[in-house]
Amino acid sequence: MQIDDELTLKKLEIFLAFMRTGNLARAAAELQTSNVSVHRAIHSLESALRCPLFKHEGRNLTPLESAYVLEERAQKLIQDVLATVELTRQAAGFSAARFKLGALYSLTVKTVPQLIMGLKIRRSELNIDLILGSNIDLFYKLKNMEVDAILVSLDESVNDPDCEHLPLFSDDIFLAAPADSPFSQHSEVDLSDLREATFITLTQGFATHRDGARVFQRAGFEPKVAMQVNDIFTLLSMVSSGVGYALLPGRIAAVYENRVRLIPLQARYHMQQHIGLVFLKSRERDPNLLALVAECRMYSNRQLS
User: How confident is the chain (305 residues) per 10-residue block, as mean pLDDT?
Assistant: First the structure.
């Protein structure tokens, strides 16, 4: 038996409202519709099922056994449909109870905590998972829908027609030196003076690794790299211990501020990172993402003021 086109979920909802209230007027009030619309929906439902549901006694409708069977089954059906819709939306990441935010390690110093606090105020019921990584790793996770949005450097590695980009702020690249370094009291540094110095870098895939390589190219030499590490905080620890120098963005200045000095580079070596939010265009109407976008715009405006 094929399902009749007249058998719809909406009519089942109207039927259930009538069975709950036992009265056309009360059902109509609950559904914010008219008595006639309720009566018409019930009559259409009987036609679609090809069997009576009620005994007509004047203006009263008395449920038959068939109505009680349909009521029990329809309640389960409506609950299953609602659950199915919710699970489907969650699988697609839309308005899920959990939001997965990807970010660069360096953004956890200031930017990420402020954005998460603002997002929690907007959507207090939301559980937020923070996933840290490099530009390339995070963008891969975004494209594979392993994260809902990412906070990264807006460079060529995240250029994609399927993605939206929302700029947050720009950040200069500095020389990170131990506090007792001979360069620590300089107002700026000529990077070519460190041609023989030892450096520590992040591994490939991080925006700061790529930007550092471009700065060294401008200086005309390949740095002597003592080690490569996978997060910026380990790198800072190595610098503070005197293992070597590094090229790092200014946003991490508050970390090890008494043990690591960030020294401006001469103008010819000037390099900026442009930090922003990236998300899939297909997700732009998701309520959780809309809340994050609004918070990011407020954060960006505060940086400009």
Answer: 82 92 90 91 91 86 92 91 79 73 94 95 91 95 94 93 95 94 91 94 92 94 93 92 94 88 95 95 89 95 80
Contact predicate 299/113, CB 8 Å: no
Structure tokens that stand for 273 in this block: 């990172």
3-state SS, residue 227: strand
The amino acid at residue 191 is L
What 138-146 contacts at long range (C-beta under 8 Å, 24+ apart), as own/partner pairs, is 138/102, 138/103, 138/104, 139/278, 141/102, 142/102, 142/278, 142/279, 142/280, 143/280, 145/93, 145/280, 146/100
Q: Which contiguous run of DSSP H or E holds residue 146? A: none
Query: What distance in Å separates the CA atoms of residue 70 and residue 108, rounded to the nearest whole number?
Result: 55
Is residue 252 within 8 A of residue 228, CB to CB? The reply is no
- Structure-block tokens of residue 261: 């000095």
pLDDT at 160: 92
